[in-house]
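Example record

The entry below shows one chain as it appears in the dataset: sequence first, then structure tokens.
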Amino acid sequence: MSLTFIIGGARSGKSTYAELKAREYGEKVVYIATAVVTDESMAERVKKHREQRPVSWSTVEMYSDFERLAEYKEFMDNEVVLIDCMTTLIGNYMFDSKINFDTCSPEEVNNLEIKITEEIFSLINVCKANDKKLIMVSNETGLGVVPPYYMGNYFRDISGRINQKITVASDFMYFVLSGIPIKLKHKGEMIKWQEDF
């Protein structure tokens, strides 16, 4: 099992690069799509993503219950798992929680973050248990302005902390900037501060 983490800003080319890595890792790929179509704009984005993927790839649409993946033929029959993307997954969880982020307690947000983190690591664990090559895609949300509303702040903070945890767990990591992938981590390399993370 290996974990490759690909991160970048919106429209940076990270999904395209993740798909190139998936082709490099093997011909048998299952794509886990975390997006939920809520409007015409999202429908168009999903359509474009589908069109750029090889027709031979399997697709599973889900952002939760990853411990059940071993029950999916699409998962078991393929050697490479590509999930795109973690920040969409986080947003879905925040929306589904029905929490009022303008008035909620810090404990409610912390409990939600724990639940999301556990879900993401259940995906990593099921891939490890079934010897899959896992590619995870996420947005870097910490480079822009501070969101002017509570939910945006919580989303940025949760995403940032979860991205750090995925980084520690990853074997390989790339940052994609305007279509250019920059290697940040290679298996066996460890940033000193990560040892106690």
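Notes for this example: The first strand starts at residue 2 and ends at 8. Residues 106-129 form the longest helix (24 residues).
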